[in-house]
Amino acid sequence: MNKNVSLLTVALLLTGASSAFAASSTDLTVTGIITPAACTPVLSNNGTVDFGKTSAKDLNQTSVTHLGTEKLQVNVGCDAATTFALTLLDNRSSSTHNPYQYGLGKTSANENLGGFTVTYFDAITDSGPKNVIVSFDEGETWRNNQHIPVDPFSWAAVGDTSTGSWYPVVTSNLAMNVEVDAFIARADSLTLTDEVTLDGSATLQIKYL
Q1: pTM of the complete model
Q2: Span 39-208 CATH architecture
């Protein structure tokens, strides 16, 4: 009797182990879309903004100094009409004094020099003027973003509410004005005994939707 019970117990345990192993697997599904449309972004003035020279004596000692505003234009041309968004990859992210701005590089003493913001406005598409919209969840939802700076964590696009809520419009061409504002960290936190070069850099990327 005991032997039978023992054998039955072993059989049940093995059966349970087999079920456990069967349940320890799952499927990996890979999806995506290859779009025939390809878009190319172009910034005016080769994407260069120059704020010139500023005397260290003119910087605010105890708060951020706004150096000013410079303007560019961005044009996006696509092989075919499509929906897309723009992102800015901050190539100096370790140097910003504000995580919602783009870095301007560091001083010789390795101090974060400051940051700059980017604002899109006056967008024109194939179907005429459209609003600048922004997404903070990689294109899942969108909101109106007229003349508000876009941060490194957001996607920007142009759209309307023809679908019932804000969403990017289909277009093969886009033209927008761009404002770049530069800010220098409080001067009493910086070593400014030598000339310091502003070294901001960000890469404009297309995200197909």
Answers
A1: 0.81
A2: Sandwich (2.60)
